[in-house]
Protein: ChbG/HpnK family deacetylase
Amino acid sequence: MSPAAPQAMGLLQDRPEVRFGIHLTLVRDCAQDRWEPLSPKTAVTSLLDDTGLLRAFTPTGRAELLARARLPEVEREFRAQINAVVDAGLVPTHLDFHCLADGGRADILDLTMTLAAEYGVATRIWLEPGRQKARQRGLPVVDHDFLDSFALDIADKAARYTQLLHDLPAGLTEWAVHPSTGGGQSKTIDSGWRVRRTDYEFLISRQARELLDQEGIVVIDYTTLRNAWVQAGPTPTEQ
Structure:
């Protein structure tokens, strides 16, 4: 788990109006990070590298994790991370994955959907195989491919966002944006701070608010999806 997680949970405790999901983590961002599992290391050895840390998110690290991770150990670590949040008195709306789209493996996604039903939350799913699986179970997911703001050019980003909002298709769409003020600390540790700063500038702009009104776009959080997932009941494997 990221060393910043306790601080993040403290901020959420101070701001109960903020809706959030649990970013389930099986990899660390880079080799310099020292992210450890919440579970005892001896109980989740298939998730760790030779130094006892979560594997770094590199092509090699990702491949090794997905090839070696044993599902019972994934479940143990996911439960530990979810329980850390719940035991802090926080109420998440959904589960999602750090750097592993839809968990990286079909069985990991299935496990996460089962845990979501148990804990009364939704799962954030955005790849088409996972979306089809969710819809077959009567669970709502996004209708269109999602947008990652790191895939957009920084130059003229406001104009690009404006066009995307004009062209937004009917249905449920998700944008993964990464707002930050891009302060001194951010510039020191994050090579993508300019992406975050330009996201922030557009999201708080009057232009963005006016565009949403003009286009009739309704912004929701995962509370709506969580409620629908809970109403749908357990997945077929849990009945």
Remarks:
- The first strand starts at residue 21 and ends at 24.
- Strands lie at 21-24, 27-28, 55-56, 94-97, 122-123, 147-148, 175-176.
- Residues 1-124 form a domain with the TIM Barrel fold (CATH 3.20.20.370).
